[in-house]
UniProtKB/TrEMBL annotation:
Secretion signal, residue range per the UniProt entry: 1-22
UniProt subcellular location: Cell envelope
Designated name of the protein: ABC transporter substrate-binding protein
Keywords for this protein: Signal
Family according to the record: Belongs to the bacterial solute-binding protein 2 family.
Domain called Periplasmic binding protein: residue spans: 46-305
Pfam family, one: Peripla_BP_4
PANTHER family to which the protein is assigned, alphabetical: D-ALLOSE-BINDING PERIPLASMIC PROTEIN-RELATED, GALACTOFURANOSE-BINDING PROTEIN YTFQ
Amino acid sequence: MNKTVSMAAAALALVTTMTACGSGSESEGAGGGAEGGGGGDTIVLGFSQVGAESGWRTANTKSIKQSAEDAGFELRFSDAQQQQENQIQAIRSFIQQGVDVIAFSPVVESGWDTVLVEARAADIPVVLTDRAVETDEDDVYETFLGSDFVEEGRKAGRWLVDEYADSDEEVRIVELQGTTGSAPANDRRDGFAEIIGEDDKFEVIASQDGDFTRSGGQEVMQAFLSSHDDIDVLYAHNDDMALGAIESIEAAGLEPGEDIKIISVDGIKDAFQAMADGKINVVVECNPLLGPQLMDLVEKVHAGEEVPERVKVEEGVFTQDQAEEELPNRKY
Ligand code: GZL
């Protein structure tokens, strides 16, 4: 693989990345700046991040940056502000720079084949982290490190089935979905539906995209409340939307956690505090601290070592009675 990238091209690519993404693009760690690509002693890792939409994402970014520094890698980091076109341009820029490895968390599942084929043609290995892609191409990424979102949805469903095991009454659910087309939104929806679908007393009366943000959760929950006066349960695909929804529930004069039970996913500190305050009933953990595992995979992939095609992250489920005790242990 020809990794000689002219200084001008590399500088242009880096500037292009910053201009194109209109977002945060930075180079950190050993040898930061607009030097050429990889091929030296220091592994140059190009990372395209979804954005900064949630507490989970903030913790994920911090883990990646800290782990790259600890591993002695040069990290070229791009924040796509939740726009797929920004991620595609960042990946193209990393290809032009001739980085050693590209890693990214795809904001949505589809639309990646062209740029992944370009990375393969440039002989630059790609590592998926956090979210998966749908692709018809073979060998366009080395491994996928991330949670099992379908299982997270099942865990949410199982809690609800247990919670209402002794009731035959209809249970009316509203669902705050994550970013449309994203793997966590699709899979958490499907896993939850799989479990509650076994009993027709459970009915999802409304489901809408809140984009994984607090403002999105607040706005969509407000809309749900204005068109439904019989909501029993909120299933939020992440804590930030659940926390935003709580504001709307309280503004409507209702008690979150009591009048409307709340199931959430991620496990950020603010959600544990809300659980301790009785406002969220259960949190399905989704671990953002993927940095150490990611850097280990990057090192192996760069060395040409075999890596598993799929690396799952172990996670738990936490209920209100555990919140107070667990809160001091939370790392994000
Ligand atoms: C899950 C991650 C999701 C989180 C949200 O791995 O992709 O994106 O659940 C975040 O908080 O926005």
